[in-house]
Design a protein that fits this description.
260 residues; alpha/beta; five-stranded parallel beta sheet; 8 helices; globular
Length: 260
Amino acid sequence: MPDAVFSPAAWCLLLALVLLASWPRLGRGWRRAGVAAWCLLVLGCMPLGANLLERGLEGLVPARDYCASAGQGPIVLLSGGANHPPGGATDYRALTGESWTRTRAATELWLADGTGTLWVAGGGPYPVRESVVLANLAREWGVPPAALRIEARSTTTRESARALASALSGRRARLVTSPPHRARALQAFGSAGIDACVHDTGTDVVPPAGLGYLLPQASAIGKSEDALHELVGLAWYHVLDWREGARQRSRPGRSDARGD
């Protein structure tokens, strides 16, 4: 889905044009609603609004879903994507900043354990799979090849979870991802029947710091886009789970809830 769909700046501009074009024909109630919606979109372009969104998104993950201790369960590094098609298995310049930081966090977690398995999940849309590039980066940072496992077919977090369901069965997986993505990752892995927790890598929430916190900024727009993308993705995953459950319940021959 195009990034503009989640951009408060794009919707702010579009709504302003619609309001200007239709203002004489709008009733008082519609004018007030339109101006209120426009103000909310402007708020999303400010660090204040972006960090409120981020705080709410991170708050969806309760404390019990964070990994309590090191050295327990396999580590799962979820790819953060690539900016362009990797030219090869060691084309690290193609990786997004999220992929770099997630890989570094997963590597440090494995090195703290000194043993165990590090799964790298996420194929992506390119011929050279993202997980292959990330695994090579982790290897250069000290994870031995024998500890690395690659899942390279998935293109979404939900697909990654289902691809790893059998391999992770019976142990609690430690997911390494970025703060905005934690809630959706936990939902996807839980839906696949995987007992998982998220490794705490800190927060992306930036506290107030001067007047700039109330001024529209490109970085704030980007953070709002990411947060809205995750919220919509989380809602969509719940819809997919509901549809999947409905199909299973409607299959012929299903046992009645009261038992036979």
